[in-house]
Input
Amino acid sequence: MGRTSSRDRMNNEINAGSMADIAFLLLIFFLVTTTILEDKGILVKLPPWSDEEPDITKLNKRNVYSVLVNAQNQLLVRGEQKKIDDLREDTKMFIDNPQKREDLAESPNKAIVSLKNDRGTKYKAYLEVYNEIQAAYNELRDEEARRKYGKPYSQLNRDQRKAVRDKYPLIISEAEPTAFGEES
Amino acid sequence: MSKFQKKRGKSSPAISTASLPDIIFMLLFFFMVVTVLRDAELKVNVITPSATELTKLEKKSLVNYLYVGKPTKKYQETYGTRPLLQLGDSFKRVKDIPLFIEQHRVKVPEVQRKGITSSLRVDGDVTMGIVSDIKTELRKAGQLKINYSAKPRGE
Output
């Protein structure tokens, strides 16, 4: 009699049903915590390498928007000192040239942004300038998209995007940096 | 016939769930093994600048990373405090870039090679000298699609 009862107790297994839940919990924990570090940034296409420097002197001067960043991270835009906060509006004005001024770009697709910096320029300052120019173009493209298709640029289809992009092509020419400033 | 039916009625047809944990554990191990986030131990301090016009990088397998920044405390004794380039796991010189790019390129299927992007994760306080040298080297290596890694700007 006693024997049977002890045997009964031995037969009592641990309920493995909750094991699955525990495993699930672990699984979800791992799925959640392993957030794959996502990378965002400004996508740039570099020009192919050639030994000779592109000659921008041949271009019509009114179409060139030259931006210089010196080692003190100061901006010189077309010969004038500018603040970074004004750069976006100024770039837009230059590219679009709504008043058809003589000294600004003939047409948006002829405008060229010429970027030059020093070896001592901070990367932060450089990227900020780049960001502002990119932003100016993005805004212009967005305005154009709304005007033409009544939709923001991000909602256009491929062909429409291309049409807008062709009207406002982003052409940035980067010159070899000068080496006045101190590198760190 | 009657015998057969009797037998069937007797045995309760409950599926044993005892093996369920094992299956889940198998899944768990699969995920644990697959998500090896070996994002290369960083030997340089990189705080990327912030920007607004960001594009998300898709397809991680098509991206290679170049880190530029000052060596971390641990390595400052041996390598100094000037900004250095880190490729993969170790400090490299700028002229080692073409090899690094090539090593990554052979791992990518041929049809996708056009989409290979080099992500420059550069510290904001680094000066442009080394960055320009890297860009020149990338251009020489024919790696033209690059990404200036940046953080979204909190506004």
